[in-house]
Amino acid sequence: MTAYSGLTYELPLVRGKVDTPPCHLCPAICCQYYALEIDKPTSKKDFEQIRWYLLHERTHVFVDEGKWYLQIWNRCSHLTTDQRCEIYETRPEICREYGADAEGQVNCHAVSTKNEEYDLLFTEPEQLEKYYRKLYEKRYGKKKKQKGRKKKDS
Predict the structure, then answer these.
(1) Are 129 and 120 in contact (CB under 8 A)?
(2) CA atoms within 13 A on the CB side of 149
(3) Is residue 122 part of a domain?
(4) Taking the CB of residue 90, how many other CB atoms lie within 10 A of it?
(5) Residue 122, phi then psi, degrees to nearest 5
(6) Which of 23, 63, 102, 122 ranks highest by number of CB atoms within 10 Å?
(7) What's the pTM value of the predicted model, to 2 decimals?
(8) In Å, how far are 33, 71, 73 from 36, measured between CA atoms?
(9) Would you say the C-alpha torsion 18, 24, 27, 28 has a positive or negative sign?
């Protein structure tokens, strides 16, 4: 199974410094998915739950500023065929806020290189499993392989 990247164009779409989000130059990437914050995994069971998410099509998990998110690639029902918002004047607050960070700097897909806005991005279960193994080894050390059976003391 090939993972759905969600992005099918060369990023960044806009090069150089911009003062406002360049929505007029973008194919509405931010309107193609939604993301929900999830608990940071702290146990094998938590990682298994996230692995289950990743077994579903068009689903990713990413980490941004230490927070974990479930990302579902599902286009907004108000996005028109020319990639414009048909409810722009009454769009939700989350849409109005998107594209600028806390300091007011433009921070959206159109000005970033592919996936640089994420601390971590998992698009398939194998990536998460590799991350978990590495985290586990870092925390508990590598598991030693046993050679043969242990002899009983007589």
Answers:
(1) no
(2) 3
(3) yes
(4) 8
(5) -115, 120
(6) 122
(7) 0.77
(8) 10, 7, 12
(9) positive
Write out the chain's pLDDT in tens, 154 residues. 566 666 666 777 778 788 888 888 888 888 999 999 999 999 999 999 999 999 999 999 999 989 999 999 999 999 999 989 999 999 999 998 888 777 878 878 888 776 577 889 999 999 999 999 998 887 767 665 656 655 555 4
Domain, as residue range, for 48: 28-90+117-140
Residue type, 152: K
Contact 139, 36 (CB under 8 A): no
Residue 76, pLDDT score: 96
Domains held by the chain: number:
1
| CA gap 54, 70 in Å, rounded | 9
Q: What is the largest CA-CA distance in the chain?
A: 84
Work out the angle between the directed axes of helices 125-140 and 44-54 (0-180°, nearest 10). 160
> Which two tokens mark 85?
């918002």
